[in-house]
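Fig. S4 source data, part A: sequence.
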Amino acid sequence: MYSRSENAAAIVRGSASGSLLEAALLLAIGFYLRWSGLEGVSRSQLYNWSVDVVVWTFLVGGFLILGVMLLCRTGRPWTLLVDGLVNLLIGASLVGCGVIWLSHSDIQGILILISGLLVLSAAKGSWTNYRLALQAMITVPSAQPPLVRPEESAASAAPDPQAKAEAMERLLSTKQARPAVPAKVDIRRKDEPVPDGFLAELGREQEPKRE
């Protein structure tokens, strides 16, 4: 049976797998953009700066998420807050750069914007998992029975002599107070009328025989 701290640690470690997948995707995209030589060549310095920010956001963000994943392996709930904060920074950076790209008529800004929104969704998931971990820390699981002190369990298991004696007295008094069932007596009442046929037959028996 798991304790409350172990339940919270299981929630934290469960989010580490999602962080590992996110870190792998960010690093893959970041290295691809870096090796492809993506650079801003427009007249707008803001746009050129946003291109560099996107490339380094994917690279640095991937390594940061990878470090957060290692922290989540420890099972500490506060690591979920760090995970959420890192995801929030990465997502906000990508969303901002995506908006800049779209404002400069770069259709690829839609992909950057979608990537930022997905990272922000991961930040929300980290916050939700953090609340679940805290709830697991302060809530007793339903499957865990309440703790009982040894003296209380021994007292409840031992019979009470006084209660046992009172129960025996109530049982004996109930048996003595039970009324006896009268025997079935079939005696005809004196005032009950005699059938006419019976009187006629009796009169014929008492009448002397004539010679």
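Fig. S4 source data, part B ends here. The mean pLDDT is 76.
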